[in-house]
């Protein structure tokens, strides 16, 4: 394999990479440490909940994960049995059942897949924690779909302790959402137990973004492979994108790829500009990655409906037809109508498409694409081929 002239360690720019130090989030980190300090001293005696909110790419996930891994590590050193578990509610499709099963099976991989209810799973989780004398710090990331699908889920999780009056505390929660709005459907008492500790992350400024990508670039790029001007341009563009650090890091990676493809030795501002035109808001690689194969095929089909036409909407019939063609191309058996509807709703929840009723024809639905078709098709195809 050819050695890159640009990158030293691309993995540092991967979406799943957790930075060792979160720049400009020191205050929030200290707040978490204060709230959860009992995990280091007497984890059986308390249980706390924290909400983290903030817009896209402001470091909610990174903050929780860094904190969780650090406290787990430190607790271990001090001989306290604390476990951090990070679960994404969107990936679990908003199902408390999936989330609990994941939690139980993480602690006990041989736990059977089937034959359990939510109550059984919760019980099994607490029993496991009891048996091992463990305190679980559970992070529910992207909690919106969970609250939407199961408004009682958080109630259940915040209440489990109360029913175990004299027993040790086993479960603490970090809940992440884009905004506090998400918690509105909750009942008053769940709301008040949750809302005691709120961390609200504001968008990064241009200067903060510059610090973040600089430190990432030092690890990811070869020495002198990226210019200061390029870094500044990236931070500028990401600040305009709402202070989104993920956008900044994506752009950093793409600019590197762009320069590499050109055979350049250094990343220059023009590579950043070139890369920025292939990066769109609402088209997030990690969300696309979480789609099933057929959801991806459907997305390609939708993109094709719009790629060569100027129209704003496609009918479900058109989309289905395009989907069958795409399936043929990929040698896949097309899924049925009902299944396609499920896929469409998922795509809508990712804000890639919107679905509305056509006014004139009563019950027919029409579908609009919210991101550029060409870029979308390219991106999804690349994911499938990978
Ligand atoms: N303070 C920081 N220092 C270093 N890297 C950061 C910082 N904040 C965020 N990042 C990086 O930026 C990217 C986006 O952060 P993160 O995924 O935590 O955002 P988020 O708020 O969870 O976004 P979303 O709402 O889309 O889930 C990640 O790669 C993360 O590692
Ligand atoms: Mg996140």
Rg for CA atoms: 23 Å
Count of discrete domains = 3
Order of helices and strands: HHEHEHHEHHEHEHHHHHHEHHEEH
Query: What is the CATH topology classification name of the largest domain?
Result: Rossmann fold
Low-confidence stretches: none
* Helix content class: 40-55%
What small molecules does this complex bind? adenosine-5'-triphosphate, magnesium ion
Q: Give the C-level CATH assignment of the largest domain.
A: Alpha Beta
For the largest sheet, list the strands in their spatial order.
2-3-4-1-5
The secondary-structure class comes to: alpha/beta
End-to-end span in angstroms?
A: 17 Å
Descriptive terms for the model:
386 residues; alpha/beta; Helicase, Ruva Protein, domain 3; Rossmann fold; Arc Repressor Mutant, subunit A; 3 domains; 5-stranded parallel sheet; 3-stranded antiparallel sheet; 17 helices; 50% helix; binds adenosine-5'-triphosphate; binds magnesium ion
Report on this model:
- This protein has 17 helices and eight strands.
- The chain folds into three domains: 10-15 and 204-276, Helicase, Ruva Protein, domain 3, CATH 1.10.8; 26-201, Rossmann fold, CATH 3.40.50.300; 285-385, Winged helix-like DNA-binding domain superfamily/Winged helix DNA-binding domain (Arc Repressor Mutant, subunit A).
- Helices cover 50% and strands 11% of the residues.
- It is globular.
- The model has no long low-confidence stretch (mean pLDDT 89).
- The protein is of the alpha/beta class and 386 residues long.
- The protein starts with 25 loop residues before the first helix and ends with a helix.
- The protein binds adenosine-5'-triphosphate and magnesium ion.
- Magnesium ion is lined by residues 60-61, 141.
């Amino acid at each position: 394999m050819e050695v890159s002239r640009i990158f030293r360690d691309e993995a540092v720019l991967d979406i799943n990479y957790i930075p060792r130090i979160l720049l400009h989030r020191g205050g929030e980190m200290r707040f978490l440490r204060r709230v959860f300090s009992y995990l280091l001293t007497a984890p059986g005696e308390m249980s706390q909940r924290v909400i983290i909110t903030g817009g896209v790419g402001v470091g909610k996930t990174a903050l929780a994960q860094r904190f969780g891994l650090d406290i787990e590590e430190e607790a271990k050193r001090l001989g306290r049995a604390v476990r951090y578990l990070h679960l994404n509610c969107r990936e679990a499709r908003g199902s408390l059942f999936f989330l609990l099963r994941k939690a139980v099976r993480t602690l006990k991989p041989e736990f059977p897949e089937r034959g359990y209810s939510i109550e059984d799973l919760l019980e099994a989780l607490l029993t496991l924690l009891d048996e091992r004398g463990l305190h679980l710090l559970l992070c529910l990331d992207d909690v919106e779909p969970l609250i939407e699908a199961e408004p009682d889920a958080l109630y259940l999780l915040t209440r489990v302790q109360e029913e175990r009056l004299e027993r040790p505390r086993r479960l603490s929660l970090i809940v992440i959402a884009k905004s506090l709005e998400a918690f509105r459907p909750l009942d008053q008492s769940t709301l008040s137990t949750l809302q005691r500790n709120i961390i609200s992350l504001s968008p990064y400024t241009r200067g903060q973004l510059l610090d973040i990508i600089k430190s990432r670039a030092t690890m990811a790029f070869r020495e002198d492979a990226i210019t200061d001007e390029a870094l500044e341009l990236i931070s500028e563009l990401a600040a305009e994108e709402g202070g989104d650090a993920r956008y900044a890091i994506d752009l950093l990676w793409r600019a590197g790829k762009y320069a590499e493809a050109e055979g350049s030795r250094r990343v220059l501002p023009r590579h950043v500009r070139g890369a920025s035109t292939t990066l769109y808001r609402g088209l997030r690689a990690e969300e696309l990655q979480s789609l099933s194969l057929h959801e991806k095929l459907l997305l390609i089909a939708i993109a094709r409906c719009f790629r060569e036409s100027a129209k704003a909407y496609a009918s479900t019939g058109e989309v289905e037809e395009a989907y069958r063609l795409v399936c043929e191309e990929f040698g896949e058996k097309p899924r049925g109508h009902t299944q396609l509807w499920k896929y469409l709703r998922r795509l809508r929840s990712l804000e890639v498409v919107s679905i509305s009723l056509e006014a004139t024809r009563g019950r027919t639905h029409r579908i609009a694409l919210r991101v550029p078709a060409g870029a979308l098709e390219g991106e999804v195809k690349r994911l499938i081929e990978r």
